[in-house]
Structure formats: structure tokens, C-alpha cells
Amino acid sequence: MARRGQRVVLLDMDPQAHLTMHFGHEPNPQSPNIYQVLAGSSTLEQILKPAGENILVGAANIDLAAAEIELASVVGREVILHDAIQEYPCPYDYLLMDCPPSLGILTINALSAANEVFITLQPHFLALQGMGKLLETIHLVSRRINRELKVTGIVLCLYEKGTRLANEVVADMENFFEQSRSQNTPWANAVIFKTRIRRNIKLAEAPSYGQNIFSYAPESNGAEDYNALADEVLSMNMVLPEIESESKSPGDSINGTISETDVSDESHHGAVSDTAVDADASSASRSDSGSAGQG
């Protein structure tokens, strides 16, 4: 997205801080980080760091693991991140949030702030079970906290086209979403993206060098696939909220959440969450004015 001129904000909501390290930042508790936003000691603007052209990163560290306990008695704990994003004064096009592999308060915060969810899923049987639990949580959040939340689509990762298992999983998902078209659920209009992220060793190597795939191996299958996915997402005809000006708060743009359920992450607001077995979910939001919402 950033390579196509979109202004992207990335929030790392995972105590493992993989997104933070992927973009070359150390998960240092002494540095500005997203935990400080949840704790109320810093604003989102104060903790964001540049991580390349058109990219800002809100770093994570192990302190986030304590947030589940520390926020347990806080009134309105589910919408702390939503409120912080609403107060962020700078325009952006996509905001993506990387969430932990659980359906706790960190993931709930991301879903409460997001407009859209993108689920990244490895085509395995256990991943489908994880996706089911994630969808239950999304449905609950959409009913009680965030009525704008919807599942935009499924991104298949670590995909091996020639395997029978992958084809069976895709067929099962297509059947499930087709049966959901007439139902009043957040995934009633979800799609399975045509772009598949193929298994590629370069994608695994890139983070160890603190680089993204486009810097590390721009000619690899991984870079080709993510380029195609970016084009597919940008080409989607989504209904976007009205924005009065570029400086309007991010809550007026599309937010995104990414959730990894072993399900394995525009302006969307986005959150990435490692939610269950083999699946990831991400949500995103986009703004006509170039501002992004929550995820």
C-alpha cells in the first residue's frame, strides 16, 4: 500500500512484537510503544515511529502481555484504542493492527476500532476451526460494541496449489460464505481473495534482516503475491465514509484488523491478531480523503 502512495499506519498489538522487529525496531520497553497508549500515558501521535516512506509504526513490547490484567477493572477498556485513534490528528489512508494469537482484550480493542477485518488463513483443517471462533468473536463485537465492523475477505497464506487439502479447504470456505450471503452477519459479503500468498522462504528470511519483502527480495514470489494482493484490495469497490477534510480524525476512515488464528492484516485502520490455531484475521478501513480509521 505504501509503495502505491498510500499513507499507512501500523499498530503492533502483539506482545511478541513481530511487526515491530519486522520493520527494524527493537521491542524496547523504554522506547515509545502502544502499551503506553493503552495505559493512558502517551498519545498515538507520540509513539509512532517512521519505518520507511509513507509508513509509521506503533511499536510493541512484552509489557503488552500485562495489559490483559491491568485493564481488567478499567471502565470502557474495550474502546481505549478506538478513542486513541479518534484523537490522532494526522491524515492517513490505511491503519493496520497486528494482534496476538488470542481473543483477549488486545484483540477486542482492535476489533472495536476497526471497520473491516481481513482474515489471513493457512489452508489447513485446524485453521478453519480457529476461524470459526474468530467469527464468533467478530459477531459479538459487531452486535455489542462496533456495528460498523465487517469481514471483507480471506487471504490464503502459505498456499500450496497442488495439494488436495488446500483445494478442499478453499471449497469448504466458498460453500460456507455462499450460504451466509442472505444472513445478517458481519461476513455476509466476505470474499476469498483471488491472490494466494504462496509458501516462499524469502518471506521467512526477510524479518531476520529487519526488512520487508519488497526491500529484501523484490523479485521473489512473496513480493509478487503481496503486490498482487495490494492491487486487489485497492481495486475493491468499498463503501467509504464521508470525510470533511484531510486532517479529520482517523475514526472517519476505514479501519483494519488482522487476526492470526493460524488463521495466520488500509486509509484502512488495521489490526493483526493471532487468534486461534492456523488462521489470521485482519481488518482495514479506507478513507476518501486519505485518512484511515481503526482496526
- Please tally the β strands and state the result: 10
N-to-C terminal Cα separation, in Å? 16 Å
Q: Whole-number radius of gyration?
A: 17 Å
State mean pLDDT (0 to 100 scale): 81
Largest sheet: 10 strands, mixed
Protein architecture, described:
There is one protein chain. It is built from 11 helices and 10 strands. The chain is α/β, with parallel strands linked by helices. The chain has one domain: 3-Layer(aba) Sandwich (Rossmann fold), CATH 3.40.50.300. Strands 1, 2, 3, 4, 5, 6, 7, 8, 9 and 10 form a 10-stranded mixed sheet that branches. It starts with 7 loop residues before the first strand and ends in an 11-residue tail after the last strand.
Give the gist of this structure.
This protein has 295 residues and is α/β, with parallel strands linked by helices. The protein is 32% helix and 20% strand. Strands 1, 2, 3, 4, 5, 6, 7, 8, 9 and 10 form a ten-stranded mixed sheet that branches.
Task: Supply database-style keywords.
alpha/beta, 10 strands, 295 residues, single chain, 10-stranded mixed beta sheet, 11 helices, Rossmann fold, disordered C terminus
